[in-house]
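Issue: copy button drops trailing tokens. Both records pasted manually instead:
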Amino acid sequence: MTTDRSRKYRSPAAEQFDHHNATAPAIMANKPSNRPVSLSPAIALLGVLLASPACTSLPEIPLTTPEPIKVAPIEVQVRIDLYQHGQKPAEAVETAIRMEEIVERQRNRMAEIQELKDNRLVGENHRGLLEVRNLPGGDYGNYVKKTVKEENRDRTYMMRAEAQRRDLLLARIEEEQWIRRSELSFQGEWLEIADPEKEGGFRWKRKE
């Protein structure tokens, strides 16, 4: 008997190792993976809905809108108490719009008003309004009167709206505004104060 000595001798352990390497890819290809699968948020949400026992069917989602979507941010800001004091919804919205316009005008006018106060031309009276104390001549005097008139018109509207909202007399709101504006005024500005020598009377004084 002829023995093939050219064949390299391999131990049983080596043969077993080769067999394992040859079959491993096939085994791994058929073996399920234990790693978690990443799902998109939409798919994950759909899975939760379908798994819920209370969900037997998905709601229908309209793909079109019958009318263009309209946004009215002003209406969201309208306070509910405007409806409770005699104003209809449309009137309440109109009031809110006008009040926003007034606030914007007053904000733009603040520097002018302060300059008139600094020059001691106008002061705050006991009704919560501006009053001319020293009127210059010429065009500048006309400007002062016009500015005071426009500011007082806006203040009056706001105070009347506040009185209606709180169901109070206008005089009560005027007094509150007078006190508030007096407290916020600066030293040297003209203020109307209660006259202790006259019951119910007032007099002008520079703030100390």
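Record 2 (pasted manually too):
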Amino acid sequence: MKNSGKKIITFFAALFIVVLSFAANTLTVEQRAQKQMEKMNAVCALNAQQQAQVKQLYVDVINKQTSEKADREQLKKADKVKLNAAPVKREANPARKEFRESVKTILTAEQLAKWNAANQKKK
């Protein structure tokens, strides 16, 4: 009896820790944008104005992606349209292109070269 009680307590303690870890990893849009901007800042050494502009770009992109994802989920639930990977992928490319074009207007030529080099390393 004592042993099974310890197992139950251990199980619920582990479950509580897992739930807390998932809750702690949930970031707001602003936090996600800040994190992405900080990554870019580490590569490109952005000034304060550029940081604000890039962060706003990330906020816009994250909101757009979240909205598009919610729309796709609604369509799936309504079962009105059968979604496949190809159309979804084609829709995502213009958003990335738009983001990259916007970043090009914010960064200097030197910063842009650093950013492109860092992106090439990721691939």
